[in-house]
Amino acid sequence: MEHGLTPGRHRRPRRFGLVAAGGTALLSLVLAALMSLTGGVALAATLFSDNFDDGDASGWSKSGGDWTVVADGSSVFQQSNTDSSLARQFAGSSSWTNYTVSARVKPTGFNGSGSYAALGARSTGSSTRYQVALLNSGRAELQVVNGSTVTVVGGTNLTVSMGTWYTLQVTVSGSTLTGWVNGQQVASGSSSQFSTGRIVLVTSYAAARFDDVVVSDAAGPAPTSAAPSASRSSAPSPSPSGPAPSSSPGTIPTWPTKSGDAGLPNGTISVSGTFDGGMKRYCCIGDGGQSESQDPMFELANGATIKNVILGSPAGDGIHCLGTCTIQNVWWEDVGEDAATFLGTGGGTSYVIGGGAKSASDKVFQHNGNGTVNISGFYVENAGKLYRACGNCTNSYQRNVVIDNVITKSTSVVAGININWGDTARFTRITAYGSSTVICDKFLGAPKGSEPTHVGSGADGVNCFYSPSDITYR
Fold it and tell me: Which of 126, 213, 275, 283 is the most exposed place for a label (fewest CB within 10 A)?
């Protein structure tokens, strides 16, 4: 049975306001994971991102074409002129060297042979770049573009359909270039033509829409939709003061020791800005069961951050995020109903960075709203699912999850999503203690009052993205 609050219908718990002194709103950019959260193993840092949900394209520089931000489910960046021989939008820093850029691209019109829509990296001028291009000839190619000279590094046959979203990714690391489409490698090769440069969105005699642009400093496939809404800077988030979840990748972490106890005399704690619990143990609320009538311990306003907290048992319905939020170095002794429920319907990305949870008979993280949940450096033990996109809430949305450097033990499923609503789940560096753990479960979402139908599991390059090298079973 599906559980979790429905957006627009969350319970009204008893609460008292709490804004930490000196607290700030969620930083516009968060490191995908921090050294202190990974035992000295650095994860990818997000250098730039834009999903255009703010309704504008500030931070981009145009060269040719007719570009506007339009609605397509959410806001997207459109180039509509199929007569333009070369239309480009540039962003980022000309000094960037090694990075991965990813974006969703939807061709909407082609005008003759040789037309294409592309995503580029290391653009040093108006007509120089490395790019992955979707060609109307039925090809996806990794190319080196230097003026009118186009060198094809490699490619693959691909039916390129108008009106279909494709996830393009380009990695530049030293002289090595690699390109992907929908999580599958298109080609890899070598070129020393350009050593630095900006990212670029490109069409040639084509119309296309672009969304969820993310630049990461990782030298590998960067998960899409993994960055905060319309973020255009490179400020890291503060490091939590609590213990790191793992002394080495894939190693089960030591559970943190509480620094003291804190009660909930007035019920649910409402948080705006940043709340740092100093590794105190907060307890108790609810009955520890699966009842949906329980209040949360913490309710986070849009943009709020909670960090360095241990949730004792019973923890009620854990944490509610009313918009986007960051949950950093938070540990659940016994999940009970859900550890956290993401209710925001304004798009954007919520982050779970570090921490851990035990004893979730159903799921740990429940995603009822829309947008993306990014989970990194987390440990889960004795759970049904780490993440579930709600399959029968009052409102049906496309939901996305990005899961990286996560350890599971005695956990049945890492993530469950609804493919009929376009959900996506992306996995990298997953360590599963137990060979029966399912990485990605697929369902057909159903109306409220009905149960979703399980239709399969496993990577497919459409909804579930991972390769065998991303998963380690122990």
Answer: 126
Domains of the chain: 15-43+236-473 (2.160.20.10), 46-216 (2.60.120.560)
Instruction: Find the length of the chain.
Output: 474
Secondary structure of the chain as H, E, C letters: CCCCCCCCCCCCCCEEEEECCCCCCCCCCCCCCCHHHCCCCCCCCEEEEECCCCCCCCCCEEECCCEEEEEECEEEEEECCCCCCCEEEEECCCCCCCEEEEEEEEEEEECCCCCEEEEEEEEEECCEEEEEEEECCCEEEEEEEECCEEEEEEEEECCCCCCCCEEEEEEEECCEEEEEECCEEEEEEECCCCCCCEEEEEEECEEEEEEEEEEECCCCCCCCCCCCCCCCCCCCCCCCCCCCCCCCCCCCCCCCCCCCEECCCCCEEEEECEEEEEEEEECCECCCCCCCCCCCCEEECCCEEEEEEEECCCECCCEEECCCEEEEEEEECCCCCCCEEECCCCCCEEEEECCEEEEEEEEEEEECCCEEEEEECCEEEEEEEEEEECCCCCCCCCEEEEEEEEEEEEEEEEEEEEHHHCCEEEEEEEEEECCCCEEEEEEECCCCCCCCEEEEECCCCCCEECCHHHEEEC
Give the span between the Cα atoms of 234 and 90, in whole angstroms. Answer: 17
* Nearest residue to 139 (alpha-carbon basis) of 181, 96, 111, 101: 181
Residue 126 token pair = 């108006």
Task: Name 173's Cβ contacts closer than 8 Å, sequence gap at least 6.
Answer: 98, 219
What is the token pair recorded at 351? Answer: 């982050």
* Phi, psi (degrees; rounded to nearest 5) at 297: -75, -45
As a whole number of Å, the end-to-end CA separation of the chain is 29
Please write the tens of the pLDDT for every residue from 152-202.
999 999 999 999 999 999 999 999 999 989 878 899 999 999 999 999 999
In contact, 103 and 91? CB cutoff 8 Å: no
- 437-473 pLDDT, tens digit per residue, is 999 999 999 999 999 999 999 999 999 999 999 999 9
Q: Which residues of 350-360 are buried (b: 16+ CB within 10 A; e: fewer)?
A: bbbbbbbbbbb
In sequence order, what are the residues at sequence separation of 6 or more whose Cβ sits closer than 8 angstroms to the Cβ of residue 70? 76, 78, 209
Residue-wise pLDDT tens digits, 5-14 = 433 334 334 3
Q: How far apart are CA 190 and CA 50, in angstroms?
A: 29
CA distance 316 to 239: 27
